């Protein structure tokens, strides 16, 4: 049994202007001690996937179908009491913009101790001592537990968020753009920290980001999302050696690689689609250089073609042959 | 000064006064400043793209704003086409400068007027400087620039407001608006940082195209050293208000001499899982720029710091052809 | 102006569609009441069943089929007087609002945009005026300026100048810091150009609400002055003065002399307050969070 298995998840935002098909039939598996990266442009639905799994969708989002099996049990069918057992203890999240997520009125030590006290039957003293341990684990001196969020720098606040995410020893941690707002060097330190912790605690991770370079350096597997769908899913090394989907290839080519020789970067023509009225057939067809008639009428399914490699494209074989 | 230098910056400083209110300035004699830019010297040659690279708070944006004249220096000089900017005070002359020197910004949404359509946004610079004689000529020029920056389909986009456009489209409007005045020099302040990665390349390639087509000199400000490598001919790495290393981009990327530059390069994520990064052990975080102590400003975090580093600051010294470094250790070993 | 109108029209239509029912209801109800009143202001003299100033022999008659709202001491039809009274109670309020908004706009924008000593002096003046509760200030100005239509308009306008000034100034201050203003400067735009084309549009969203609220308060202020014997003098049929007259005969049972003038004031207040609340709710939608 997989640790986390998502099947045909569908989440739409029901706005007065129409239904925004943010997540449209997404399926993937997460094993124990594995890290899976979700990459894609903003608006492709990756954050919505995280919110759906945790069932914390903002209005007017609604999960319309699918299953989210955590240790075999469907989260989408749980009631509040059961959900409370899963949130923080089974799966926890670290969102971007830690500045907005931390309560400015409470000391950070208290904010880490809170979920411990709520989700586990622990006294205040023990919760606070565990909070101090967690702070040390993320590289912050325990004496800073008495600081307020505004007394800490951006990097430190992000670490506090990570400590909070780890507070109840979850099996899975979902990190949504954990380093986007941070400077390069601090971002690097935070990602190294996350890698370190994962090893120490045997943690599985879903990393959501638009920066595939970060995923390349920290994740085992990678799912490329486009307009609410997964277009390619495989191990990171396979994806870089032989990307199959045209979008994956274009995405990888649009990142400058500082270790390589300087080369011309190719841009992807067009704009991300309107999710209220996505194009018929394959969502990517208006921007795809290989699009044929069938691409405009029939949506390609996510086919498993290798041991750990799936792609949703009608012509992947021909495209690979041409390259 | 040779005529192939467009911008020359000399010992430029910009200090922001932190003294808060009457009570504190009366009680404490010590004045506190944020030394955003603390003695920067470089020049930008005609036709090149010069990059200012550094993390947030290093002073690169402030330097760009000083060169644009949006804010005035505390000390030091900015020469534009040979003329000291301080001497240009007449309103008419300042207005004429707009025709030579323009700017792109990081957040295109914030820097576009929410009250104007694309057409009016682009027509405005033409109207302000009386560059067209009638509405037809105005529309013609607007359509022309939209085609040039690939802001298409034109008919569909003309009547739209900025909130109806995508990030990439907004940035193209900002670029088109600046290019309409035919400037010879442009400051591009993080023009792609807020855009999606797949859109970034389009804008970067557009900038390179425009530079070639219109022979524009560009000051490219970014925190992303990988992008600066793609765009810039020469770069200056900034830390806490000063340039710590400066020279041709390829040289610095391949052979970084200053420990901060080395740390920056090692921290950049590489989109290739096979390449692991060599660790440069660098401690702590960027301190707030109320830099107050004598000695090298990087010393507290430098893995190679020695006693003399805390005593005196190091100046930029040329160690190879056009490659400058402000670090005695690097200067010694080069 | 055309573009700004177009911006407001299309934006308004979009916002109206997604507004909650309560907001739409308030807006429509308020707008309807106000339309009736505005018609009275403009065409009142032609709509009256009787001549508002004509005496008759039906002295102090209670409401009947002949005189829907009864007559006053001198036999004048109360309904006619109150309809014509709209011209004064409401019409003068319109003038007062126009004056106070114009002055508030002018001084507020200059103060906010240029800052410096001008700003400090104006703030000092406005802050000291702000100390007076609105109506007390109006009262004092009414006494100082004396009775009469224009004097009353001016007095009432003073009541709102400090708050209009503050509001415009604070909007100016916040818009001034926005990026696009700096971009305009870099493009070479002059200060006047920036204020008129890039800061002024931000006033529009609160202007509608300010006007309707100002009308509500202004009408009340004028009626209040009339009631106290100040402001617009008799025989002009202003609502407040009618109320004052009617009060004298209340104890002898002539309730209509008090109820109906009060009713008109109530309708005016209700109409403009509903309109401004409805407009505000439509123009500034809050995102409701449902579970």
Descriptive overview:
- The complex is a heterotrimer of chains A (323), B (334) and C (291).
- Chain A has 323 residues and is an alpha/beta fold.
- Chain A has helices spanning 46-54, 80-86, 98-101, 108-119, 124-137, 154-166, 184-201, 212-218, 236-241, 246-253, 293-297, 316-322, and strands spanning 4-15, 18-30, 35-39, 61-70, 73-74, 91-94, 172-176, 204-209, 221-226, 229-235, 303-306, 309-311.
- In chain A, a hairpin with a 2-residue loop joins strand 9 (221-226) and strand 10 (229-235).
- Chain B has twelve helices and twelve strands.
- In chain B, the strands form two sheets. Chain B has an eight-stranded mixed sheet, sandwiched between helices.
- In chain B, strand 9 and strand 10 form a beta hairpin.
- Chain C is 74% helix and 0% strand.
- Chain C has eleven helices and no strands.
- In chain C, helix 5 (134-145) packs across helix 6 (149-176), helix 6 (149-176) packs antiparallel against helix 9 (204-227) and helix 9 (204-227) packs parallel to helix 10.
- Chains in contact: A-B, A-C, B-C.
- The interface between A and B is large, with 41 and 41 residues.
List its traits.
heterotrimer; A: 323 residues; C: 291 residues; mainly alpha; MetI-like fold; 11 helices; 0% strand
Compose a concise summary of this entry.
The complex is a heterotrimer of chains A (323), B (334) and C (291). Chain A has helices at residues 46-54, 80-86, 98-101, 108-119, 124-137, 154-166, 184-201, 212-218, 236-241, 246-253, 293-297, 316-322, and strands at residues 4-15, 18-30, 35-39, 61-70, 73-74, 91-94, 172-176, 204-209, 221-226, 229-235, 303-306, 309-311.
